Amino acid sequence: MDQFFQQLVNGLTLGSLYALIAVGYTVVYGIVQLINFAHGEVFMIGAFGALTTYLLFFDGKTSVWILPIMIIGAILASVGTAVAMERIAYRPLRNAPRLAPLITAIGISVFLQEFVRLFYERPGWTLFAFAFAALGVGYYVGARVAKAELNHPVSKWYDRAALIGAVVGAVAVWVVVRQVDSDLTAVMVALVIVVGAVVGTAIGWLAGLVVRRRARTEIKIQAIAAAAAAAAVAAVVGWVLFEKLISSITWPSAKQRIPFPQIDVVTGTAFDVGGVTIQRSAIFTMAALAICAALLWFFINRTRLGRGMQAVSQDPDTARLMGINVDRIIVVAFALGAVLAAIAGVSQGLQNNNIDFRMGFLAGLKAFTAAVLGGIGNVYGAVVGGLVLGVIEAMATQYIPGQFGGSTWKDVWAFVILILVLVFRPQGLLGARVVDRA
Hints:
Largest sheet: 2 strands, antiparallel
Mean pLDDT: 90
Number of strands: 4
Order of helices and strands: HHHHHHHHEEEHHHHEHHH
Distance between the termini: 54 Å
CATH architecture of the domain at 1-121 and 258-424: Orthogonal Bundle
Shape: globular
GO molecular function: L-isoleucine transmembrane transporter activity; L-leucine transmembrane transporter activity; L-phenylalanine transmembrane transporter activity; L-valine transmembrane transporter activity
Oligomer: single chain
Number of helices: 15
Structural class: mainly alpha
Protein name: Branched-chain amino acid transport system permease protein
Subcellular location: Cell membrane
CATH class of the domain at 1-121 and 258-424: Mainly Alpha
GO biological process, one term: D-alanine transmembrane transport
Radius of gyration: 24 Å
Family: Belongs to the binding-protein-dependent transport system permease family. LivHM subfamily.
CATH topology of the domain at 1-121 and 258-424: ABC transporter involved in vitamin B12 uptake, BtuC
């Protein structure tokens, strides 16, 4: 009997991990009818985000108060990846045949794996990330100051030309100066910011002048100057972060397993309860699932944004006519799934004591299996499906005799369950959330 309860605890721990990832699949599917097969890599990015936060600020420390900051770092990495994925790869394919975004998701999955494998130990790529971030910050500030509609489907690039020219000019000045001399005094840095803002403003004004006849919106010089100045300042901040923090650390190679930080209280000596061993990290994982599930239920059912998500999942066209910003709702769906995946990534690292760039592939497939098992599109079904799948794996490992049992066969039985569910109950245990869209 002790062995049964031990496997039950192991299964619930594993199932909690699957459930955290599976919710991301089912939330996105419920909104845009897309199976995001790159979601497993969002989970992997979250684990590496937590490790990066630890190496940057707390290397060698084990205090429990470090964990919330690591989780925040994981969430920022995962959400940033998921939102960029949606904006760059999925949004242009929203009205394409369903096979196109599916193949795109597989391509993104492979890209993210290889990117982490090749570049994690070489942080120079972050300079390009900071440069693009500076462009984005400048454009955002300029657009807010302009208070203009810049998303017209016909003239949007002409409307945006002035702001784009401003931010590109400002960042280009910083890049050129850094190529000439990478060690600048504080006075020179201030001078470069001023020159970048002036040059960016001039380029933005000229760009707006060139496209004036084709643009629907005229961008005032104040907005152009604000965009250029913000981009110049953001470029400086990015360089300082790279020079003072990122380049000062010897980063481990992601081509092999990387030890994950062990944190007081949530890791360490396991508890023994009536002959059943319960790891501290298992308690953290199950508690994280319970808290996240409760907060997600509250968000979906008790907030305006959550009700907007329900409306879009039922009929996006009618929701748009009712004044709901469908694009924003879809971004929120991707971000919500990424938050839970990031927490799952931290949990995985704490349980296994290491992470690697391949960790998201199989975990993503298992989470997809859990989502289908519970009912794809059903948030609560994803939680139930994850827990059931984890328990089934644990029990199969213990109780299936002969050459078809043991831990080496647990993945086989997980996908056998997937096949059986698809054949005999394709709607899942709790029923897939199917909406008849007119």
